[in-house]
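Help: why these numbers?

___
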Amino acid sequence: MTVSELAARIGIEPPTATRSLARLESGGWFRREPVATDRRQVRIVVTDAGHELIPGIERAWAELAEQALGGASDEQREIALTTLERANDRLRGLVGEDVLAEE
């Protein structure tokens, strides 16, 4: 995906994504490729090293969820997760509207 697409997807401005990517690039977790149809754009491609990080990131998120919801019943967890997913969807929709308005 392009830097602009990535920024829109996670709800940040493209310059913020560019700065963050510059700091992360030295880890070798992704590479930049030119977009053939638009010389102003670059595509971010996750490398094998980046893909290897995914299980550890997922584990960290699972541990955080357990710490946050550790005392909750299965029903309470389901309600919390459903509510958070709805809020996330709503926020993504709002960001999408803002991104389209800026273009």
The first strand starts at residue 30 and ends at 35. The chain has one domain: 3-102.
